[in-house]
Design a protein that fits this description.
The protein has five helices and nine strands; from the N terminus they run αββββαββαααβββ. It is globular, with a radius of gyration of 20 Å. It has a single domain (9-125, 170-210), classed as Electron Transport, Fmn-binding Protein, Chain A (Pnp Oxidase, Chain A). Helices cover 26% and strands 33% of the residues. A hairpin with a 7-residue loop joins strand 7 (172-186) and strand 8. Strands 1, 2, 3, 4, 5, 6, 7, 8 and 9 form a nine-stranded antiparallel sheet that branches. Helix 4 (129-137) packs across helix 5 (147-160). The chain is of the alpha+beta class.
């Protein structure tokens, strides 16, 4: 095994100053996301979603950002998955974007809400057929006996939807995380990184520098 203690990287690409930040963290996020897309960062919309049970036991996984507006960040999943059940019992979570090619990360914390039905319907309708069938076929997060079991479910649903409209299953749809805290991190040399945190106030956002 490699010597983990000596694996390190110096960050030298850029710097971040408060004067360069937009007053709205969601606008600032769009600037950085656009940078990631233009830089052809692999999977720029991939984000770590962390949720917790009612007892506070947390879990994390990668999901994809599918919409962003002035209210928050939208993703889609199975409502009966582990994350869906955790959100139902404890509707607070966090998101983490990490773009190592740009030496940047963004942390987001907030409350999670289901999107409106028509928003889930519209996104589902825009998905490729294989992804639509996948939403029907996967009993997400549940134990299954084999890969063959899953593939048989897929075949069954493919056959079913040859003669009927392929609509969104009721247990699949969108969530929106509405942030109350957003942190932008820019890597710097000697671990003296630039960190700025936005905190939501009654009349807008307050932004301040954090020690690295």
């Amino acid at each position: 095994m490699a010597d983990l203690q000596h694996i390190r990287k110096e960050y030298r690409l850029s710097r971040l100053e408060i004067d360069n930040l937009d007053v709205d963290p969601l606008v600032q996020f769009k600037y950085w996301l656009n940078d990631a897309i233009q830089s052809e960062v692999p999977e720029p919309t991939a984000m770590v979603l962390s949720t917790a049970s009612a007892e506070g036991r947390s879990s994390s996984r990668i999901v994809l950002l599918k919409d962003l507006d002035s209210d928050g960040f939208t993703f889609f999943t199975n409502y009966e998955s582990k994350k869906g059940l955790q959100i139902a019992s404890n509707p607070f979570g966090s998101l983490l974007f990490f773009w190592p090619q740009l030496e940047r990360q963004i942390r987001i914390e907030g409350k999670i809400f289901k999107t409106l039905r028509h928003e889930s319907d519209e996104y589902f309708a825009a998905r490729p057929e294989g992804s639509k069938i996948g939403a029907w076929s996967s009993p997400q997060s549940r134990r299954i006996p084999s890969r063959e079991y899953l593939e048989n479910l897929q075949s069954d649903y493919l056959e079913m939807f040859r003669t009927k409209a392929l609509e969104r299953p009721e247990n699949w749809g969108g969530y929106k995380l509405v942030p109350n805290l957003v942190e932008f991190w820019q890597g710097r040399e000697n671990r003296l990184h630039d960190r700025f945190e936005y905190s939501r106030k009654d009349n807008g956002w307050e932004v301040y520098r954090l020690a690295p």
